[in-house]
């Protein structure tokens, strides 16, 4: 363990549970899976497990592993071909992980998820329980999107996104994204030879986001933009994140040994600001807001504020500035926040567009009913911290 006191060294010393996302670009070449690479990565993942970390892997590579059997070089061009390639490749991918772990006395489990699985609270809790049980038994879960069944509405879209949701599902302290690039550069290093690596990011601002552009590599899906989104989602929830180059699998151990490689994203300070802490623990809620699925997703998955259009019902006796509890459309509590509008006002504007507030009330305090800064999400497993 390092004895310096940089933020990353201090964090790594406290990490217990880590989600490690491995991109297709790390696991495969043009002709399919790179078996030597899986072998080396598995050895290092197992070593981290041996050091006492709970290790959860999100691995891409199913499409790359299966496309050869369909006679495809390069990227499969249609969704149907991608799904067929994934159906062939996923079991191959798992076979290689399994034999690499087994040869070292370890074991792995496959978990395939769709976004629906995590949007539905019962399935979310079930997935969580399964993952926790596997970790208890020292087994390394290897997660991928369930590519063969997903349609657009239930896709995570890319595994960067999936890995950030898994990090919050299992309450990890750290999300490590392994890609084919040394970390976040100030511009795309494939296009600009003078691009410079950014070693540490305190806050993922709009300026940082524009560095990522939109393009992905030959093999990957989301590019740097989706990695930044994943890092943002993680750090906002208090989970540290890092992007490092997995083409050299030993980088993983170097990172855990405290070497300053890759880009490190500092988690939002101490999980909660004092204000949010107050909303969560001190201010007594005076009412309840029931929101629809779209609003729930916007608040939980996208870090947005609550607008009137997503509110389906209200209860209680509250004034502007009071704390209210938020419930999803199955009646599950999921957040608490400070409302900009009274109960009487909300009865008029709920379900309506922001642009209609002035017409309905004759005035407007704010576009949002609860601003993001005044909202605290419940933890995944239960409502204890807030209720
Ligand atoms: N600012 C940037 N810094 C680093 N990489 C960038 C940046 N902008 C674009 N990229 C590209 O993003 C690619 C990684 O994303 P992707 O191809 O989706 O990989 P993966 O398979 O690991 O998900 C890199 O190969 C890199 O060329
Ligand atoms: N689920 C897909 C990978 C999707 C994906 O996000 O790929 P990548 O950008 O390489 O992490 C597969 O296993 O091929």
Automatic annotation (TrEMBL):
Top-level taxon: Bacteria
Pfam family, one: PUA
Protein keywords: Amino-acid biosynthesis, ATP-binding, Cytoplasm, Kinase, Nucleotide-binding, Proline biosynthesis, Transferase
Positions of transmembrane segments: none
GO annotation terms (biological process): L-proline biosynthetic process
Binding residue positions for substrate: 60, 147, 159
Catalysed reaction, written as an equation: L-glutamate + ATP = L-glutamyl 5-phosphate + ADP
Pathway: Amino-acid biosynthesis; L-proline biosynthesis; L-glutamate 5-semialdehyde from L-glutamate: step 1/2
Xref: PANTHER family: GLUTAMATE 5-KINASE, ISOPENTENYL PHOSPHATE KINASE
HAMAP family named in the record: ProB
NCBIfam families assigned to the protein according to its UniProt record, in alphabetical order: proB
General function of this protein: Catalyzes the transfer of a phosphate group to glutamate to form L-glutamate 5-phosphate.
Name of the protein in question: Glutamate 5-kinase
Gene: proB
